[in-house]
Amino acid sequence: MSETIRPVGGRVFQASAERRGPAPLGTKTRFVDTRLRGEMSNAIVYIDVSEVCEGALDELKAGLKDLADFIEAKEPQLIAYNVYFSDDGTRMTVVNVHPNSASLEYHMEVAGPLFRQFVELVTLSSIHIYGEPSEKALKQVREKARLLGGGAVEVAALHAGFTRLAAQRPRRRQTSL
Q: Fewest Cβ atoms closer than 10 Å to its Cβ: which of 67, 95, 144, 151?
């Protein structure tokens, strides 16, 4: 069974394993709005990795829960902000997904002053940015790296791919301490 997909403002294409190309006349179609595709090509994925200082895990987790709550309330444009810890609690990874570079700049302006509270709790190992951040955002990220231990900042531009955003569903928030 095949399905025809008609992008809003675009040509009709047949979606099936057997046939690709324009759909025959009279075929049932489903409309898909593909206009977000261009906007999401500007997305920024930010990942930082830090070593947790000995004896700092409980204080760090409490501080990060407060930081995540603050960011959720103050940065509605942010697509995702998640903090992960290794099983042994010695490494922390922070993942942010921004719709564009301006969002990363705004995040660094709003949340940046709060990063100082983590200076004695972590040593930043690296920051990886996937996408094309502005010069201002790169400067802000480098300042954060210097503040938290001087880890390397690496940037990789998008080569190929796409992003799909699922419909917003109620979610259960994880807060394990």
A: 95
